[in-house]
Design a protein that fits this description.
DNA-binding; homodimer; about 190 residues; about 25% strand; 8 strands; alpha+beta
DNA sequence: TTCTAAATATGATGCAGATCATAAAGTGCT
DNA sequence: AGCACTTTATGATCTGCATCATATTTAGAA
């Protein structure tokens, strides 16, 4: 689904500032959110206040469908990472798009499949693998998204929040992986070398 | 999608015996599998041989679409739990069903959303929560599927394989939850009381 | 350039859950 | 009823990562 198409259809664009919360756990879903610009993170927060990053969504992507489609309250927070322009599409309008926009339902199916794939991979890691293995897995996953020679712009804290580890553990782990040449660093940043 | 409808359309039913492996990690996906009868489990296995149960599928359900749809090799094993009758639908036929069967694409979207929901929940648990909390979460999740007064027919080993814990830890955890009356047992089995 | 906050670094200690070992109940089969 | 196999049980020890404390380095703002 092209964002411009939605705007042409008359859907309104809303502005959200960094750190704004779009929805939080327990809320009943009413919209699907299409990102025109900016970035959001979807996180669950434990009783002790520890964040776990369920996903990051950027311009051109949408989020919030699963809870809406199965009609269950949200499990996660969705928080604005960078000032964003977002289109809220109501449940009825969303169902309308699925019915009437050719190819849209297939696009949703593929998007959901991709996310499911990522979560299956991470579940296996969290259930069975040790810190360094987990780290190497997400790092390689993230590296696949950047060009050869470019660096990952994630902090150790973010890696921690994606793997369920602690910053200190991530810092030590990244060091160790680097010394074993399983990953490569340039001025403190992880880079893709091939 | 009704299984009978598939049979009427001429799709062949294959028989699989307990413990047969339908596919394993690394294989390129070619089919979507519809279960006419029986049960399969989808598991990932760590280097040290530890199983993690990604999902269990029963009569009327289908599995194997995500990898096929995003055209990536399987991450998991799918193994027959109980002798089964299964219909293999090729990629082209599957796309055909999505295009032509009214309501089928919506059904897939909902199914994928539900699985995503479960995986998000488990990721949060594995990333942030301690053994007993994890246990209580899947137990309650599983109890929602059975009637009041009925018991869960899962072994401690299966609970371990769903939570990434060890049998001994599950046994101790279940004992502890039971003594705190957070769950209720009848003759060694967890029962739903309300 | 200087100040401040965020990110990275590193050592010391503690603890939940893994691991190992061994036994007691169940459960199904003949 | 007897046997083999699976599941549950329980204690003892070990260990990876969390936790706590305290620097040091880097980045962004004034």
């Amino acid at each position: 689904m092209d964002i411009q198409k939605l705007i042409d259809k008359g859907f309104a664009v809303k502005t959200f500032k960094k750190d704004a919360i779009i929805y939080e756990p327990g809320m009943q879903p009413r919209y699907v959110y299409f990102i025109k610009s900016g970035e959001v993170r979807m996180v669950t927060i434990s009783d002790e206040g520890k964040e776990f990053i369920q996903g990051v969504f950027k311009a051109g992507q949408y989020f919030g469908e699963p809870a809406l489609l199965i009609d269950r309250p949200y499990l996660a927070f969705t928080i604005i990472n960078k000032d964003s322009h977002i289109i809220q599409v109501s449940k009825d309008d969303f169902f309308g798009l699925i019915e009437n926009e050719p190819g849209f339902s297939m696009s949703i199916i593929k998007t959901l499949s991709k996310r499911l794939f990522y979560k299956s991979m991470m579940l296996e890691e969290l259930a069975n693998e040790k810190a360094e293995h987990r780290l190497l897995t997400i790092i390689n996953y993230l590296l696949a998204e950047v060009k050869v020679g470019e660096q990952l712009k994630v902090t150790r804290q973010e890696l921690a929040d994606m793997t369920g580890l602690r910053v200190e553990t991530v810092i030590r782990g990244v060091k160790s992986l680097s010394s074993k040449e399983e990953i490569f660093m340039v001025r403190g940043k992880i880079v893709r070398v091939k």
